Amino acid sequence: MSRRLPGLALPLAVAPLLLLGACTDQAPTSPAPLALKRAPTAAATGDVAVVLTGLNAPKQLAFGPEGALYVTETGTGEAGGSCIPAGDAGEEACYSLSGSITRLWKGEQERVVTGLPSLGVGGEVVAGPNDVAFQGRGNMYVTIGLGANPALRDGLGAEGATLGTLIVVRPNGKWRVVADISGFEASVNPDDGEEDSNPYGLLAERGRQYVTDAGGNSLLQVAPNGDISLVATFADLPLPPLPLPFTSSQAVPTEVVRGPDGALYVSTLTGAPFLPGLARIYRVTPGGTSTVYRDGFTAVTDFAFGRDGSLYVLQFASEIFLGGAGSVVRVSPDGTTRTTIIDGLITPTGIAVGHDGAVYVTNRGVFVGGGEVLRIAP
């Protein structure tokens, strides 16, 4: 079963992050999961406040070295550059520099980085800034998504080469490509599947960065000179008998985190049909061996560890084919207790835990101009 959808050959495995892309806040025009039709509920273990609003398809969150909260914005879907055909309906996928980064600092919201690569189809965003991470002061790293076969970038000319990459943004707002993640997929294809790349999750450490390629089902390491090496791949998962043409589901790694024990941890969204309970958190040890750390989740887009070792897991949906509302589940350090700290979320995409124990969640993560960040008090 192909993991691709008609059109730009975007992978079905990352449909909620790309094909649903970014709907306008007023009237979504693409097929949408049930979560898009539900309002957040008051089902939360702590007080909930909206701390950022008006975001353009926000994705992942990170705290900067000064303590401010940063969130990526995938873009506006505008056509600002070169275009390529996308599908049978005469639509085009068009490049723009509408991606951005917004900061929450001392209660003030400010879009501090603009002009980042983005790709839109029919006025909706399908690729752009996905995750942000910091390596000391002055080194902001950002993954720029693609969500397609890397060969399709050629039709966009020089602009296309900035998609499917890891970039670094300097304090003056200027940026440059550090590593061509999608190029690595095209030349190596670590999982031996269809060539498909979508740089998504990001961890920046001294002298290296780790990137999850959600399209390539791989975890990669980037050296200071931009060289890319494979850390691990994540195999397809077999499915139980279903009245559907699916026998397996792809892993689709979304986020990478350094855990309290020093190991790397990687979350998975899983691919179509997005069966509830199939998503996992993997523990990756030196040498690239991955083992299941926690399982039984649904469509995980992000996760974070609390200061006490608790695991906070962000679920994009709750039903098959990405139906139902999203939620945050807290797993006790010993793994024995699971508590839903908030339910009824609408296409949530990113999570971060503050030093004060508050949980921050990107909600309405596929809406242009309608994205927001929630703060859940401990």
List keywords for this structure.
Neuraminidase; 6-stranded antiparallel sheet; 378 residues; mainly beta; 30 strands; 1 helix; 4-stranded antiparallel sheet
Structure explained in plain terms:
This protein is mainly β. The protein has one domain (12-376): Neuraminidase (6 Propeller). The chain is built from one helix and 30 strands. It has one helix at residues 181-188, and strands spanning 23-24, 48-55, 58-63, 69-73, 83-85, 92-105, 108-121, 124-127, 129-134, 140-144, 165-169, 175-179, 199-205, 208-213, 218-222, 228-233, 237-238, 248-249, 253-258, 264-268, 279-285, 289-297, 300-305, 311-315, 326-331, 338-345, 350-353, 359-363, 367-368, 371-376. Strands 3, 4, 5, 6, 7 and 8 form a six-stranded antiparallel sheet that branches. Strands 2-30-28-27 form a four-stranded antiparallel sheet, with no helix packed on it. A hairpin with a 6-residue loop joins strand 25 and strand 26 (338-345). The longest helix has 8 residues, at 181-188.
